[in-house]
């Protein structure tokens, strides 16, 4: 009996040390915790000059939305244009007709599993397709289209569970650049950025679609996504609309505090980022501010803003806050910048991972932290491995994944946030979805 017990324990230890690490999911925008951190193990430490293995490529249509990956399923939304001319003029709406779709692919092979589609008319600027990455939770997929069509679908079959039409249900017009707020699952709630009188933020029952609460009014809902932080002893739901940054009780929608913060053109885009007791937000028109969160109650006070410090004005891609620094892409000139968090002092900047040699505003790279380094997906379609520190930007390799099929101010771009799961990169442009292996073992 003694020998069998010892043998069993030894066998268990051998299994534990030899079993492969569990693969990670990427079930929503910015990852499992919406913090731009990839926690999966067994990932490459460098990008070889010979490149990276491409597992598969499959054709898709247009969109700014990124993929979501859960288990062996990859979910993506796109827009198949049938009529109309796409013109990327910042202040002009393109009038298009086509099919908006939610697609599900096999994560190993890229084979299509199912699709949900419906006719949709676009009247928005930069109208290539949906802006919102699917949110996947508890066997359901929540997909929000560019014109405010929200769908709850069965994750395995694509069967419709429930739906909403924000424009009709809440009498809200489509903003110039469409509906962009990433739906957030919080317990039994699905929290969405909607718009309209008293309904900038709306919480639905995630299983039935029934409205639980609604809150806030603003001339425009903006384009930032709901997020939740913990501060002052409570959980706080952050909603940044065109006029102000607001903290709400996520259970009721009650407003805890409000701080004025108005970017140009109502373009609140990045989610506010928290580091310790600090909260940072910035946007178009050289608008940005750092707030200190009260540690005893839900409240915030301004530490500095862009009228005092130059800092960094992030828009298209969320910045990353770490060790007293802000690392983010500046929407005005297009550099990746390193900025001191507490003072707003700019320490360094570089175009290398954003526009490269092609100078221009709104330079974009999507930053995802992995262990002691970052994966950056550049608007050039390159996956870059780099270290970011107060000393500067240290590139450690890159691989060209996709051609930039979009356009910004005359230069080609790919502006879609990738997913990292199954020790792989999943990225898309307006023509294809690609899976690239990032496993350190063959």
Walk me through what this model shows:
- By secondary structure, this protein is mainly beta.
- The protein has a domain at 24-180 and 415-442: Thrombin, subunit H, CATH 2.40.10.480.
- The chain is 5% helix and 44% strand.
- The chain is built from two helices and 34 strands.
- It has helices at 2-18, 166-169; strands at 54-59, 68-70, 73-83, 94-106, 112-124, 135-137, 140-144, 149-154, 160-165, 184-186, 189-193, 201-205, 211-215, 227-231, 234-240, 244-248, 255-260, 273-275, 278-283, 287-293, 300-305, 320-322, 325-329, 336-340, 346-350, 365-370, 373-378, 382-389, 392-400, 406-408, 411-413, 419-421, 424-428, 432-437.
- The strands form nine sheets. A four-stranded antiparallel sheet has the order 1-34-33-32, with no helix packed on it. A four-stranded antiparallel sheet has the order 2-3-4-5, with no helix packed on it.
- β12 (201-205) and β13 form a beta hairpin.
- The longest helix has 17 residues, at 2-18.
- The protein is globular, with a radius of gyration of 22 Å.
Give the secondary structure arrangement, pairings included.
Elements: H1 2-18, E1 54-59, E2 68-70, E3 73-83, E4 94-106, E5 112-124, E6 135-137, E7 140-144, E8 149-154, E9 160-165, H2 166-169, E10 184-186, E11 189-193, E12 201-205, E13 211-215, E14 227-231, E15 234-240, E16 244-248, E17 255-260, E18 273-275, E19 278-283, E20 287-293, E21 300-305, E22 320-322, E23 325-329, E24 336-340, E25 346-350, E26 365-370, E27 373-378, E28 382-389, E29 392-400, E30 406-408, E31 411-413, E32 419-421, E33 424-428, E34 432-437
Antiparallel strand pairs: 1-34, 2-3, 3-4, 4-5, 6-7, 7-8, 8-9, 10-11, 11-12, 12-13, 14-15, 15-16, 16-17, 18-19, 19-20, 20-21, 22-23, 23-24, 24-25, 26-27, 27-28, 28-29, 30-31, 32-33, 33-34
